[in-house]
Amino acid sequence: MQQQSNSTIKRFFDWYLHASLHVALATTVLVQMTFYFCFLPFNIAITSLVFFGTVFSYNFIKYAQVIAKKKELTRFLKSIIVLSVISLIIALISFLFLDLKAQLLTVFFGLLCVLYVIPLAKSKTNLRNYAGIKIYIVSLCWAGVTTLLPIVNADQTIENDILFKFLQRFILTLILILVFEINDLKYDDIRLKTVPQTIGVLKTKYLIGLLLIPFYFLEFLKVNYYGNQWIINLILVSVIALFTYYANPNRSKYYTLFWVESIPVLWYLLIILFNTHYL
């Protein structure tokens, strides 16, 4: 009975990860951080759009081509399709409640998502398969959706602080993707020319270390600087450095799919811990 229970929990956990619910949680907590640091009230439309939009877009990217080639769908793929359709409907409803400028920005990121999977005109290559470009597209989308979209929807001016936050999120996403690429080295098509494929695992880790420097010190350039942020970001940088150090192509998929993608959640929890008035 215990073994069956453990097996059920594992199947659900695997489904949770592969159905993109965990990565959606990561993007959503970054949005909540933007609300907090920019003194914005909680917005259900933005929150649900980002969460369910992430679920749909990630599943679309991961499974669209697989599903198109399958003659008979497995139970797992059927459940992913149902979840993705429901997520798309909720995301579209949420989209209707956004400001016009926020809607236009959402459409822009949505088009990037589509072009990421569907080949460009007169070409059989999508943006995902252009050598070296994938990490920048994903980083741009993560930083833009979690930072700029809430600001634009609230009709606030995009000042230097916002640009620093955007750049910080861009760098963070870039770092997390590089850790993913180290972990996925033996699975990735050589034609993708990922960073570890191009410069090697060790140099990629050195690159992550270099990127952690501006990620940390960008905090001190912000006008609205929070006193506890240097501690929070130092803890975060230390955790990322440890994940980077232990990353290698022989690690389990859980290493990145759960633990590495939990870093934004850890960041948010640290903010709550060090700023107990914000719950």
TrEMBL record:
Which UniProt key words apply to this protein?
Membrane, Transmembrane, Transmembrane helix
- Source domain of life is Bacteria
> Is the keyword Cytoplasm assigned to this protein?
no
Q: Does the keyword Protein transport apply?
A: no
Residues spanning the membrane: 12-33, 39-60, 80-98, 104-121, 133-154, 166-185, 206-224, 230-247, 254-274
The identity of this protein, by name, is: Prenyltransferase
Q: What lineage is on file?
A: Bacteria, Pseudomonadati, Bacteroidota, Flavobacteriia, Flavobacteriales
